[in-house]
Automatic annotation (TrEMBL):
Keywords: ATP-binding, DNA replication, DNA-binding, Helicase, Hydrolase, Isomerase, Metal-binding, Nucleotide-binding, Primosome, Zinc. Zn(2+) 2 binds at residues 508, 511, 526, 529. It comes from Lacicoccus qingdaonensis. This is Replication restart protein PriA. GO terms for cellular component: primosome complex. PROSITE patterns: HELICASE_ATP_BIND_1, HELICASE_CTER. Belongs to the helicase family. PriA subfamily. NCBIfam families: priA (TIGR00595), PRK05580.1-3 (NF004066).
């Protein structure tokens, strides 16, 4: 018997399937989906069995045998193997890169090369070995060059053995536990505490965690006494790592659905009942109770003994969502959290794989969760760009979800208050079934929204970042004990440093971008590569000492607000939330301590559902408008609508204020009037004119290298390939420098291909990719082929 195997080598020129013989002892054991160790050139590497067959097309004596199996049960199913193949094709990447994206990092191989004395070693060799003070087994990379040179001939003669050991990232986590020995009790004298503790521990047949004993008020000293006397033994037990374990969730019962929710639920139910792979676009205004629909559909799926996959843009940003799922379904929920360690992720993955969880909640990569028997896949906030991976494989979770839904014949639900233009267009054409929730579930009405023209405000003499209207509104909330959410989409203190005499702005030496001033560190930082420079009093360019800071970031606004209102403020941006668990901590503080103001970057715009928030202010609604990307308007509309949606979601009604320098821009005007349909029409007209998605599909090629010359050479070649192979209906834009011309010392050039229908496109893309592998990869030139890109930057 033979196995077809994909080997774990990252270079895509080995994007090939290799054949190995299954050793006789393993023929009943090795199955499709197993990880195995195989000889590959001089090395032993990890591979994945994707097929098993009785014969091979060439001389079987040339085929090497599999060294050993790495799993007891296969880690991949036939479905996931096929999925990996198709995605690798579509997104022009290697099979192995998709397989290793599907599996948790803990299952990826890490190999170590070890040396040891072989059985044939001579006495002389042993003397050399021991003379170097080497242990029986030594890792090659720990040897010095001299040692290695001395050992080389011995390795060649076979006196020293070389062996590759595959180590796994996963380490089982152990916890200290106490185990009763149940030996007859002697006299405890007056050691009542010890007696009491022994009673406590003897309630457990197996063992009890030491942490639990201590939580119950016993001390380490008392424990040690019992151990010394032999009544108790200390043991290490493998602990599950469920990070939500210690938390108590208040049980949440299904709510009675309103008419719109009921209609949506019924339509989706129909698909579930009839095993239809239908894609729904659940377009519901903010606070309309989309989540309640998800929860009840999932309940239905569970009742049919099928499983559910629930994707959210980012778990850390949506602690409330996770809590609602835990509260409704309890232990039946596995949370695949990006903040988990490799080991913790692996535990959750296993829980899903072993079918111990009916509901999987997670971010983008959870779309690959090893669930079987799927009943529904839900993608909340479907318009979010985080669903597209920006590294290879550059897949979009929605595409993967649709693919899996076809395999399992189950519906996909895409939910959003601000659907992506592409999804809405599909619902217009009937490719997706649209379901509308036009009213809020509790308040029924959306918050009252108004726009303040900041140029006007300046003319009136108010140069502060807070307009008169917003200031009054905040004061009103403070007086009433209600809360305000303020969005400023820019972190740091001042935006940049500028010389008032010559206009010089310090740039990052590695990237084509100005440095941002951070007051806490008192330094200038590059947000792209992390470059840090000290702040100088004199201009680098003209030596004038007339340098100042312009623009405002969250750090500075926090200060301004404190001076202005004299209240506590919670600030959330990348700087305050970089430590694990900080998102949730800050949000809890804001909620529980009723802090008057939450100030943050776009991370505060979505998912929050706090009854006491009645005012939302956007300090600068224009930041997204200036992005060098054709989706700038769409992103502006989405961000404003989402953040506005945080106000007045419950009994108290809400108010929203947008501050802008472009009060007449349609993205801002229509966000103000909350008119998605009108925005869609307007934006669609622009896209048609400019020939962008959803009228055209896109492929973006980005080439980067230290030298401009190399970038030009490679993009010119790609351009020629494209011209030769696509139809004349396709449009090729470029080559041109990317909007950010240099990041991290690498120049960047791009070509944008726009097309409607190109039957041979996938072949052309693979051809270009292979040419690059042969010709440019060794030059350290990087080529990214982004199919259906979400950014054109
Ligand atoms: N049928 C219902 N009866 C009573 N309350 C409901 C009902 N449906 C939802 N709610 C409540 O309405 C509030 C808003 O609902 P939810 O958070 O699900 O909205 P959403 O559409 O997901 O919002 P967003 O897109 O803004 O995050 C929640 O507090 C929820 O508990
Ligand atoms: Zn100057
Ligand atoms: Zn930089």
């Amino acid at each position: 018997m033979y196995a077809s195997i994909i080997v774990s080598v990252s270079a895509s020129d080995v994007n090939k399937v290799f054949e190995y013989k299954i050793p006789d002892g393993l023929t009943d054991f090795i199955a499709v989906g197993h990880r195995v160790l195989v000889p590959f050139g001089p090395r032993q590497i990890q591979g994945y069995v994707i097929d098993i067959k009785n014969e091979v097309g060439y001389d079987p004596s040339k085929i090497k045998p599999i060294t050993r199996a790495l799993d007891v049960k296969p880690v991949l199913t036939a479905e996931l193997i096929k999925l990996a193949k198709d995605l690798a094709d579509y997104y022009v990447t290697s099979y192995i890169s998709v397989i290793e994206t599907i599996l948790p990092a803990a299952l990826k191989s890490k190999s170590k090369k070890m040396l040891s004395l072989s059985e044939d070693s001579t006495e002389q060799t042993e003397v050399i070995w021991h003379g170097m003070n080497l242990p029986p087994k030594i890792e090659v990379k720990t040897l010095s060059a001299r040692q290695l040179a001395e050992l080389k001939p011995l390795i060649r003669r076979g006196e020293v053995e070389e062996e590759t050991i595959i180590t796994q990232h996963t380490k089982k986590k152990y916890a200290r536990a106490l185990k009763p020995t149940f030996i007859p009790r002697g006299d405890f004298g007056r050691a009542y505490k010890q007696l009491e503790l022994l009673d406590f521990i003897e309630q457990y047949d197996e063992h009890v965690l030491q942490s639990e004993v201590i939580d119950n008020g016993y001390t380490q000293g008392t424990i040690n006494e019992l151990v010394k006397k032999g009544y108790v033994e200390k043991v290490d037990v493998v602990s599950g790592r469920d990070p939500y374990k210690s938390r108590v969730f208040e049980e949440d019962l299904p709510k009675e659905l309103n008419a719109e929710q009921q209609n949506a639920y019924d339509k989706i139910s129909h698909s579930v009942d009839h095993d239809l792979a239908e894609t729904f676009l659940l377009h519901g205004v903010t606070g309309s109770g989309k989540t309640e629909v998800y929860l009840q559909v999932i309940q239905k799926v569970l009742d049919k003994e099928r499983t559910a996959l629930m994707l959210v843009p980012e778990i850390a940003l949506t602690p409330q969502m996770v809590n609602r799922f835990k509260a409704r379904f309890g232990d039946d929920v596995a949370v695949l959290h990006s903040g988990l360690s490799h080991g913790e992720k692996y535990d959750e993955w296993l829980k899903v794989k072993n079918q111990q969880a009916g509901v999987v909640v997670g971010a983008r990569s959870s779309v690959f969760a090893p669930v079987e028997n799927l009943g529904v896949i839900i993608i909340d906030e479907e318009h979010e760009t985080t669903y597209k991976q920006q590294d290879r494989p550059m897949y979009h979770a929605t595409e993967v979800a649709k693919y899996r839904s076809k395999y399992y014949n189950c519906p996909v639900i895409l939910g959003s208050a601000t659907p992506s233009l592409e999804s809405f267009a599909r619902s217009e054409r009937g490719v997706y079934t649209r379901l509308e929730l036009n009213h809020r579930a509790v308040t029924k009405t959306l918050p009252e929204t108004k726009t303040v023209d900041m140029s006007e405000e300046h003319r009136k003499g108010n140069t502060s970042i807070v307009s008169e209207a917003l200031r009054e509104a905040i004061n009103l909330r403070i007086g009433r004990g209600e809360q305000t959410v303020l969005l400023l989409n820019r972190r740091g203190y001042a935006n940049f440093q500028i010389c008032q005499s010559c206009g010089h702005v310090p740039n990052c030496p590695n990237c084509d971008i100005s440095l941002t001033y951070h007051k806490m560190q008192h330094s200038l930082l590059c947000h792209y590569c992390g470059y840090e420079a000290g702040v100088t009093r004199e201009c680098d360019n003209c030596d004038s000492d007339d340098v100042t800071f312009r623009g405002t970031g969250t750090e500075k606004v926090e200060e301004t607000l404190r001076d202005m209102f004299n209240v506590d403020i919670v600030r959330m941006d990348n700087d305050t939330t970089s430590r694990k668990g900080m998102h949730e901590k800050l949000l809890n503080t804001f909620e529980n301590e009723k802090i008057p103001i939450l100030l943050g970057t776009q991370m505060i715009a979505k998912g929050l559902d706090y009854p006491n928030v009645t005012l939302v202010g956007v300090l600068n609604a224009d930041t997204m408008l200036n992005l060098p990307d054709f989706r700038a308007n769409e992103k502006t509309y989405q961000l404003l609508t989402q953040v506005a949606g945080r106000a007045g979601r419950h009994e108290l009604s809400g108010e929203v204020i947008f501050q802008t320098y472009n009060p007449e821009h349609y993205a801002i005007e229509l966000a103000e009037s909350n008119d998605y349909a009108a925005f869609y029409e307007k934006e669609l007209a622009f896209r048609r004119l400019a020939r962008y998605s959803p009228y055209y599909f896109h492929v973006l090629f980005t080439v980067s290298h230290e030298q401009v010359k190399k970038c030009l050479e490679a993009t010119t070649h790609i351009h020629k390939e494209l011209v030769d192979s696509v139809t004349d209906k396709a449009i090729i834009v470029g080559p041109s420098p990317s909007p950010i011309e240099r990041i991290n010392r690498q120049y960047r050039f791009q070509i944008l291909l726009k097309y409607k229908s190109e039957p041979n496109l996938i072949d052309v893309l693979h051809k270009i990719n292979e040419y690059y592998n042969e010709r440019y990869k060794k030059d350290k030139l990087s080529l990214k082929i982004d199919v259906d890109p979400k950014y054109i930057m």
